[in-house]
Each structure stands twice: as structure tokens, then as C-alpha cells.
Amino acid sequence: MNCPTKLAAGLSFERTPDGPRLVVSREIGAAPAVAWRLLTDTHRWPVWGPSVVGVACEGRFVQAGTCGHVRTVGGLELPFRVTECADRRWTWRVAGVPATGHRVEPLESGCRVAFEIPPLAAPYALVCRRGLATIERLARDATE
């Protein structure tokens, strides 16, 4: 990632390994490992993901190649495949379409959790902001 263009607090436009993305992020006062576990635990996605109702896949924690189905608030059940999972960053395709990337960056005190949104899905940034607020609460509860 290089030369992010800051748009507002916690919102920037960045070039990622998957191309240009709108990035929504939040600093969280928890260890990077705690946030990473929340992001990769498919059992927790419905807890922090406002658009996710359920997940079905073989493994609980995602890794490159993980496949399954995600059930959305609208009742759709869509297939997904994790395309990359390394260095505290994972990306996926949902119904064959590149979807939101997820990453955790260590900070001196805690970490920054970020969602990388394809430009055509920019309105999804509002959903991601809600998800980040929930992740922050869950991470704080896990460390207390």
C-alpha cells in the first residue's frame, strides 16, 4: 500500500495489492492478535458484521482457499472464497466478485483495523464503520 489519500478521519483512498480501494479504519486499544482473531473467526462474523446473519464453511478460522457460504441480512446465501490470507490481511470473493479486504496493522498502543472497499461499493463504508465500532467493543471486552 502506498500514498494513501486521507478523505476524513478513518477514511482514505489507497492503492492496495488488489488495486485502488476506499479504506475505512479505526484505531483499537487491543493487541493486533486479538483483532486478527475476530476478523478471521467465521463464528464471530455475524456478531460484528452488520450485513452478515450466518456463515457456513468447513474451518472456523479463514485461511487462503477457505470456501463457504455467507447469509446476508436480506436473506441471500452467497458463496465465498478467501483469496489471500497473510501478514494480517485477508481478502475474499463473494459470489465470484472481489469483496472487502480486511487487515490489522500494529501500532505502539494497540492496532488499527481496516476494511478495504472496492470503489464501486463505496456506500458499504457506512456498514464497515458500524462493524469497526463493534470490533472495537469486542476486542476491548476480550482484553479486560
Summarize the structure.
The protein is an alpha+beta fold and 144 residues long. The chain has helices spanning 32-40, 45-48, 125-143; strands at 2-8, 11-16, 19-28, 52-57, 67-72, 77-86, 89-94, 97-98, 101-107, 110-117.
Task: Tell me what you see in this structure.
- This protein has a single domain (2-143), classed as Alpha-D-Glucose-1,6-Bisphosphate, Chain A, domain 4.
- The chain has three helices and ten strands, in the order βββααβββββββα.
- It has helices spanning 32-40, 45-48, 125-143; strands spanning 2-8, 11-16, 19-28, 52-57, 67-72, 77-86, 89-94, 97-98, 101-107, 110-117.
- Strands 1, 2, 3, 4, 5, 6, 7, 8, 9 and 10 form a ten-stranded antiparallel β-sheet that branches.
- α1 packs across α3.
- It starts with a strand and ends with a helix.
Order of helices and strands: EEEHHEEEEEEEH
Q: Within the CATH hierarchy, at the fold level, what is the topology?
A: Alpha-D-Glucose-1,6-Bisphosphate, Chain A, domain 4
Mean pLDDT: 94
SSE class: alpha+beta
In angstroms, what is the radius of gyration? 14 Å
Sum up the overall morphology in one term: globular
Span of the ends, CA to CA: 33 Å
The assigned CATH architecture is 2-Layer Sandwich
Largest sheet: 10 strands, antiparallel
CATH homologous superfamily grouping: START domain
Using DSSP, what is the number of strands? Answer: 10
Percentage beta strand: over 45%
Q: What is the top-level CATH class?
A: Alpha Beta
Low-confidence stretches: none
Count the DSSP helices: 3
Task: Count structural domains.
Answer: 1
Helicity level: 10-25%
